[in-house]
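Design request, tokens follow.
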């Protein structure tokens, strides 16, 4: 009975996901203002950014404030290749992920020897180091002047739709990777590390290898997302590419939605984008960050498992009242046990 109910729940979840993706594919065909198409790309970027951070920060519990370093690394990889060799960014998007992954491998060899707040501070220092390198390596990055990237069409409406589908592919791709990790033995090892690293090591989990792999995957996804975002903006410069705002955003989105499964970053990124955009349009940039920060403080204090965790908690008593207790693994997006 329980297995049948679990199978039906997963089938409904899969149907909802397919329906949402099909709606997203059809959205550009509707007569919407260009603003909504442009904003949809930002939302897709946020989803990819949150998913990439969650691979390390959510599944393994290693909070990082330096995630924007990999976003900027991916952006500067494609921008510098265009600046130096006039290579089209559409051909070099994968190299953005490769460059970020190599940097993560080097950083991980040093930073994974420390834990907790020390790891958080170390990753933040990496962000500032990358920003300083981008400022001073003028032959590669054009220094504080940044690098301008070309438009690929004079039709702004068409370009917006092209980037819409690129952003949708990016969001779906990163979500598929996150889902696959969550349902794999590798994902279970990461979750064991999150719960208690010493116990996981005693149980035979190769802790260092798992953390390094998660760090590299997380950085590679962020690098590809940064490459897309940079080309869409058509400009990159050190202070925006390696900013603390961009470093904090995926943490806030993952915590808001719930960082223990792949659904959480999608929900968190969507709410984050809607609220932040609404506040900026209504009260301006000066006050929107303050209001949104207060909102997030309330959410973190009252909903430590995020909105998806709250939904799973509310669903469980109804299922138990129906005559069967459903294990945590049958919640939407949670790993099977």
């Amino acid at each position: 009975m329980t297995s049948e109910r679990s199978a039906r729940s997963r089938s409904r979840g899969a149907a909802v996901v397919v329906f949402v993706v099909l709606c997203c594919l059809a959205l550009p065909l509707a007569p919407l203002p260009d603003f909504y198409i442009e904003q949809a790309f930002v939302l897709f970027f946020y989803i990819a950014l949150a998913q990439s951070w969650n691979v390390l920060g959510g599944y393994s519990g290693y909070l990082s404030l330096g995630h924007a370093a990999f976003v900027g690394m991916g952006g500067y990889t494609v921008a510098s290749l265009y600046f130096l060799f006039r290579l089209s960014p559409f051909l070099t998007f994968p190299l953005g992920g490769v460059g970020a992954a190599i940097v993560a491998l080097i950083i991980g060899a040093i930073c994974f020897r420390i834990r907790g707040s020390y790891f958080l501070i170390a990753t933040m220092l990496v962000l500032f180091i990358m920003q300083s390198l981008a400022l001073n390596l003028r032959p590669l990055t054009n220094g504080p002047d940044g690098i301008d990237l070309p438009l690929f069409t004079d039709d702004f409406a068409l370009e917006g739709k092209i980037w819409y589908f690129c952003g949708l592919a990016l969001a779906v791709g990163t979500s598929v990777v996150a889902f696959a990790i969550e349902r794999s033995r590798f994902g279970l090892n990461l979750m064991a590390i999150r719960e208690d690293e010493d116990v996981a090591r005693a149980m035979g989990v190769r802790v260092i290898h798992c953390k390094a792999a998660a760090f590299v995957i997380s950085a590679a996804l962020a690098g590809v997302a940064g490459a897309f975002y940079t080309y869409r903006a058509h400009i990159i410069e050190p202070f925006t590419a390696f900013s603390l705002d961009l470093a904090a955003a995926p943490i806030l989105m993952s915590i808001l939605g719930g960082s223990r499964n792949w659904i959480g970053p999608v929900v968190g990124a969507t709410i984050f984008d809607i609220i932040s955009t609404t506040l900026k349009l209504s009260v301006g940039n000066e006050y929107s960050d303050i209001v949104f920060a207060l909102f997030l403080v309330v959410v973190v204090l009252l909903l430590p498992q995020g909105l998806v965790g709250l939904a799973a908690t509310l669903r469980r008593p109804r299922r138990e009242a129906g005559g069967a207790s459903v294990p945590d693994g049958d919640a939407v997006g949670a790993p099977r046990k």
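Comment from the thread starter after seeing the answer: thanks! The radius of gyration is 20 Å.
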